[in-house]
# Entry
Amino acid sequence: MAKVINVGIAGFGMSGQIFQAAFLHVHNNFNIKKVFERKSSKSKEQYPYVKVVSTFEELLTEDIDLIVISTPNKLHYSMAKQALEAGKNVIVEKPLCIYPEEAEELIQTAEEKGVLLSVYQNRRWDGGFLTAKKLIEEGRLGEVVDYEAHFDRFVKGKSAKEWKETGEAGVGVLYDLGVHIIDQAVCLFGMPKEVYADIRSQREETLGDDNFQVYLYYDKMKAVLSASQLVKEVGPHIVVHGTKGSFVKYGMDVQEEKLKAGELPVGDDWGKDEEENWGILNTEADGVNYRGRIETERGNYHKFYDNIYGVLTGERELEVKPEQAKDVLRILKAAKESVEKGRRIKL
# Structure
């Protein structure tokens, strides 16, 4: 009989509900045993079998194998440190923490305790990203010279999550959305040599950043990563140009909207992109040019927890490593420094 991993979730906001609990609930090898909620019992309403607890310490008991931290960013480091020191396997909603120095402390603690530490970077399993990754790896675009990723929205007024608008360290669009597209770029191309950034606060209602462009410079290419909360008419989500061709993808991955609508992540069609949003591939092979739509790879956030289960049972290598999360934080730190100094920052 397959081992079942008992899970404690800290926090039951949007991430805890739709990105964590929904996937853990339908996974045969995980059991949501406890949920830490300070002011409500929403988790009990959705999943009657769970036990709601009012303190984080109540998750640190012998019956819990894995703790998933899905609280505001400023709490990630302290909660993860406490859970790791208690000998618990830990997954932290991105970002892992706010500073790379904190990430290094968490990595060392996990190593000392011999437990798992990972970060919920579900966007590695976005359909559009997987399609671009496949085309690059297959060499159909040649040597990549320019890469762009955009994560744009139109948000009027303050976010319903007021903590995201405070302007304190570790909040704002850069730490919310930027960590996703920076992580994707690092997965594709590795760490850049230099970083340049433009980070702004454009809406009057917010004290935090709501617009950024981060430039990652490599030997022969650059990646431009951007997000804004004031884009009514969105452009392409991913653009890749290479020595043999280009790939342009409009439309975000379908999974988040389905989850927000209350759908459970089940069925053979889960994560399948609408044909109208398939990307355009313009390339050449053997002297023949091809231009047309290419079917989007199926997005599948299930694979994150499939991998976690494989690691906990000794069958697989961890895909989202905490060292990678530290590298993303190094880039974020360099981006902030770039704004302060008005120049590129070497890594």
Q: What stands out?
A: The first helix runs from residue 14 to 26. The chain has two domains: 5-120, 123-303+330-346. The mean pLDDT is 95.
